[in-house]
């Protein structure tokens, strides 16, 4: 029999992070692992000895299917910054004592950039103290900003939501003849992958957004206004998608120019938001046109009622691949996707040393952004389109999607 | 052969207004009407002689099915205020000349309160000049605020979206252990029907919002804060649904207290918005807790990717019933729904004199709002639940819902 296993979820929720959890759970079960524990609220909860046995929470095959369709982190999440063990070894000693008490052999953490930093530190510490516990990262982020992997689970579903909602917003806007400016704000601090996915709305039946602004390109308000006026020469409505993380040439967040001193989260990241509303107010006044700001907010990362089936499947694979790799003795690694071809879409999974991934943010390549900095290229579309393909219908009960929760 | 027909769409879009259009189109076609015209952008477009022949735009049965799944107004909409004929008869003369030129016998207008006022005036004028053109209203509004009808097409789908999104937002919020306040702003100027539908999220697998504020109850900021602190005694997150139209005891919109002088639309209505963000900022500062405002904005009225099948069907019926009534000689009326029972859900359609409906806003009954003004009763749930039942899956092409548009 293989040993006991523990799995946690960390960072911002996605629509498919629970599919990765199911991948770990079923992978471990099928491999004959012992107990399969789930950390409540990631490492933060584990340090308080808050955990569950997944067999108690996921009781049957119907639960499995509902859990795949449940957005956000089933086990709860945290934004916990693990200190370096040279600065604070006490927390490591406490954690490894808990792992020992539970007789854990394999540790899995589903998360984004910051979570991969956690896995890296834990694997390093384990090596230092000669622990044989393996530590594996399972990628998850709607931001798609993890390096060394073609893409990350969670991105495809968020992109499908963004592109679908854009199509609906464009229909809603274009139904009026009034001159109008609509500015839609999409998540993405430093990487514009999700904002770029708004371009997928440009289809046979939809013009798509007219302008797209990513954090990769410095943002100038004056150019923004002139870009809009250019669009308005041949169209009554201007539809704009922009990232919450757009910054001016000095590197200052546009929302910061409004808010003054910004709050920081525990990782020291500035807390962004409402750039669209700020710009909508300003551009409305400056052009005299009707303007509206729409902020997708958390809706874009938890809209499991319109997930990408491919994303759900790949999220599951990422979890299952992590288990197989751990059982083969790998540690300090993350599961990555390698793409063989766009059309037909073919990928495979492998693992990669987490040291190359933690704390690196992969941004949209310059050559995928059009020269005037207001759109993305066909290369981006060819890359992103396959990730939003296929649907997984929610289980509807009394008119609403049913979810699985811990009692 | 029955005569020529014209149909228009007016006011804010919904997810099912095109299903009513299909109801009128197929009803008229099956009844052997002559040409079936569609006004581009409602009355405003018609006065500029902008119209289409629907047979040219809806080419086959597949188009019919796609159109039912297309949100917003296929024909385009307007917010046009028709003056009274005693004040400005020229516009009536122009309009009736256009109708005569097209040899129109039956005129259908799909819309809400303001659109029904238009139908009322047109029917009165027709009677005055002894025109035999019939004028029928087809109800449509996510606000559900039309009188004399049990409910309005468009409401059920918007309510399904609101309740589904609330469930997802609650999962997203509760996944953190952090103390937090989430304020979700829902459309509804004077009637809280749509905001109340957030209560439908309270199900076996979801606690639902903790507090719901409707425009029917005067809003006090101090009570709001103490309501939240009461919730926080037994829960780390407080989830609040509130209407964009909440007002203080003096009748002043809460968003107005922030914005100062508000802009008016063509009907003289104040343009609301962003109450949730304003309150979120304020309550965050006053309580020291993390707070987030989410504004559903236009997403709630155009999310045809998660419609209520019952709503789609009833919207179609409303259109078809209007045609049958017009052909039977009725004029100056609106189609209404009468409910026989909640469970099993049974309704029938009939018509009602539009004079009783135009310019009346039906609000949520006082007895359906809980005594402390922070929730709705079981009677409301029993009323609203049947309206969100059933799904109509979008036709997905390349990963996105396909829509029908006029070329």
UniProtKB/TrEMBL annotation, chains A, B:
<keyword id="KW-0460">Magnesium</keyword>
<dbReference type="GO" id="GO:0047334">
    <property type="term" value="F:diphosphate-fructose-6-phosphate 1-phosphotransferase activity"/>
</dbReference>
<feature type="active site" description="Proton acceptor">
    <location>
        <position position="143"/>
    </location>
</feature>
<protein>
    <recommendedName>
        <fullName>Pyrophosphate--fructose 6-phosphate 1-phosphotransferase</fullName>
        <ecNumber>2.7.1.90</ecNumber>
    </recommendedName>
</protein>
<dbReference type="InterPro" id="IPR035966">
    <property type="entry name" value="PKF_sf"/>
</dbReference>
<dbReference type="GO" id="GO:0006002">
    <property type="term" value="P:fructose 6-phosphate metabolic process"/>
</dbReference>
<comment type="subunit">
    <text>Homodimer.</text>
</comment>
<comment type="similarity">
    <text>Belongs to the phosphofructokinase type A (PFKA) family. PPi-dependent PFK group II subfamily. Clade 'B2' sub-subfamily.</text>
</comment>
<feature type="binding site">
    <location>
        <position position="12"/>
    </location>
    <ligand>
        <name>diphosphate</name>
    </ligand>
</feature>
<feature type="binding site">
    <location>
        <begin position="187"/>
        <end position="189"/>
    </location>
    <ligand>
        <name>substrate</name>
    </ligand>
</feature>
<dbReference type="InterPro" id="IPR050929">
    <property type="entry name" value="PFKA"/>
</dbReference>
<comment type="function">
    <text>Catalyzes the phosphorylation of D-fructose 6-phosphate, the first committing step of glycolysis. Uses inorganic phosphate (PPi) as phosphoryl donor instead of ATP like common ATP-dependent phosphofructokinases (ATP-PFKs), which renders the reaction reversible, and can thus function both in glycolysis and gluconeogenesis. Consistently, PPi-PFK can replace the enzymes of both the forward (ATP-PFK) and reverse (fructose-bisphosphatase (FBPase)) reactions.</text>
</comment>
<feature type="site" description="Important for catalytic activity and substrate specificity; stabilizes the transition state when the phosphoryl donor is PPi; prevents ATP from binding by mimicking the alpha-phosphate group of ATP">
    <location>
        <position position="114"/>
    </location>
</feature>
<dbReference type="InterPro" id="IPR000023">
    <property type="entry name" value="Phosphofructokinase_dom"/>
</dbReference>
<feature type="binding site">
    <location>
        <begin position="141"/>
        <end position="143"/>
    </location>
    <ligand>
        <name>substrate</name>
    </ligand>
</feature>
<keyword id="KW-0808">Transferase</keyword>
<dbReference type="Pfam" id="PF00365">
    <property type="entry name" value="PFK"/>
</dbReference>
<dbReference type="GO" id="GO:0003872">
    <property type="term" value="F:6-phosphofructokinase activity"/>
</dbReference>
<dbReference type="GO" id="GO:0005737">
    <property type="term" value="C:cytoplasm"/>
</dbReference>
<keyword id="KW-0963">Cytoplasm</keyword>
<dbReference type="InterPro" id="IPR022953">
    <property type="entry name" value="ATP_PFK"/>
</dbReference>
<dbReference type="GO" id="GO:0046872">
    <property type="term" value="F:metal ion binding"/>
</dbReference>
<dbReference type="InterPro" id="IPR011404">
    <property type="entry name" value="PPi-PFK"/>
</dbReference>
<feature type="binding site">
    <location>
        <position position="244"/>
    </location>
    <ligand>
        <name>substrate</name>
    </ligand>
</feature>
<feature type="binding site">
    <location>
        <position position="113"/>
    </location>
    <ligand>
        <name>Mg(2+)</name>
    </ligand>
</feature>
<keyword id="KW-0479">Metal-binding</keyword>
<keyword id="KW-0324">Glycolysis</keyword>
<feature type="site" description="Important for catalytic activity; stabilizes the transition state when the phosphoryl donor is PPi">
    <location>
        <position position="140"/>
    </location>
</feature>
<feature type="domain" description="Phosphofructokinase">
    <location>
        <begin position="5"/>
        <end position="303"/>
    </location>
</feature>
<comment type="pathway">
    <text>Carbohydrate degradation; glycolysis; D-glyceraldehyde 3-phosphate and glycerone phosphate from D-glucose: step 3/4.</text>
</comment>
<keyword id="KW-0418">Kinase</keyword>
